[in-house]
Amino acid sequence: MKGNKSPCFFTRLPEQFGGKIPFIVTDLVSRLRELNAINEVGLFRLNGSQADINEIIAKLDKGKIADWSKYSNVHTLANCLKKYFRDKVEKTPFFPATFNNTLEQLSTKSEPEVTSGLREIILQLPKARIYTLAFIGKFLVDLKQNNAKNKMNASNIAIVIGPNFFNFDPKITNILFCNLLQHYDEIFNGFEVTEQLFLTDEDMEIIAAPPIDTNGLLEIITLRKSSVIPYVPSYVLNDPNVSLPTRKV
Q1: Taking the CB of residue 108, how many other CB atoms lie within 10 A of it?
Q2: How confident is the model over 95-145, as pLDDT tens digits?
Q3: pTM of the full predicted structure?
Q4: Per its UniProt record, what SMART domains does this chain match (predicted)?
Q5: Which of 24, 126, 142, 146 allows an S-S link to 15, with CB 3.0 to 4.6 Å?
Q6: What backbone torsions phi and psi does residue 77 show, to the nearest 5 degrees?
Q7: Does 238 map to a domain?
Q8: Dihedral through CA 24, CA 29, CA 34, CA 36, nearest 10?
């Protein structure tokens, strides 16, 4: 990427990648598939190399990794993928906190009702989040279907992955994420993930500029507006009845 300032890709939300799936997610999942990670016992549950995790994240924060050959520990890669979502769960969870009450009520209903209700909520997310969840969800479904080898059934996956997407009671999170994995096709019907949703090199150049901090910008505008002294024509200044305004600090 051009310029000295890091694009800070790893801290970006899924919808801050030009409407496509974050390359961080697609590249890590693709690498895990290359390494046949769905055969690995305890994927997403066991720790990898912390040094390599830090190194991979630092590189992804700046852009795509051209050569993945150095990174072949599937647990290291899986932990990087989890961390992308986990780092956001406290302040900007994948499922916004505004859905928490609805999701909590939904978790007490029958399985078919949970499935249909979960789909309705997912449909309210930004399209980029829907496709991101559909993409990683398909990988997790493949992992689940190979649980005879990897010991990662739907419940086990939900326990280690769910809390990275929802910011509330883990017991409820497990119910919801388990349902998502068991009824993936029904929930994501109509959301086919194609290569058109993957970021190209040209896309990467376009999105390289750090995202604008709109909240911070609004605060600055408001502060400046409140501190500006209105323009006073010169002829008015000569009027003894006119007092000049002062700046409030």
Answers
A1: 10
A2: 999 999 999 999 999 999 999 999 999 999 999 999 999 999 999 999 999
A3: 0.83
A4: RhoGAP (SM00324)
A5: 126
A6: -65, -40
A7: no
A8: 150
Instruction: Find how far residue 107's CA is from the centre of its chain.
Output: 23
List the structure tokens of 96. Answer: 């916004």
Is residue 187 within 8 Å of 117, Cβ to Cβ?
A: no
Long-range contacts: 211-219, Cβ < 8 Å, 24+?
A: 211/8, 211/12, 211/16
Chain centroid to CA 87: how far? 9
Reported as a pLDDT band with limits 50, 70 and 90, residue 174 is very high
- Dump pLDDT digits (tens) for 33-57: 999 999 999 999 999 999 999 999 9
Residue partners of 181: CB distance under 8 A and separation at least 6: 137, 140, 141, 144, 154, 157, 158
What's 97's domain CATH number? 1.10.555.10
Are the CB atoms for 132 and 14 separated by under 8 Å?
Answer: yes
